[in-house]
Amino acid sequence: xxxxxxxxxxxxxxxxxxxxxxxxxxxxxxxxxxxxxxxxxxxxxxxxxxxxxxxxxxxxxxxxxxxxxxxxxxxxxxxxxxxxxxxxxxxxxx
Length: 94
Hints:
GO cellular component, one term: nucleus
Region (Disordered): 1-20
Distance between the termini: 54 Å
Protein name: Transcription factor PRE6
Pfam family, one: bHLH_ILI
Keywords: Growth regulation, Nucleus, Transcription, Transcription regulation
Order of helices and strands: HHHHH
Shape: elongated
Strand content: under 5%
Largest sheet: none
């Protein structure tokens, strides 16, 4: 038995996850990540799926930050009492 499996089998019963469950979760992740969707029929390693998932999440964070900055700039250039300012504040969760 590999050291990874033996360490997993030593975990408490409630937190144990099977290899099949891990494979299923990795497959679901593969279908969620745009970069990996085109590889549906190809076998992609779990490592590659996790790496691409992390990259995708980092990119999403960057996009959110960029959009927040743009909305903040837009808010600064609008009248505080305008309907547009209220919409922007709601988007920024102010």
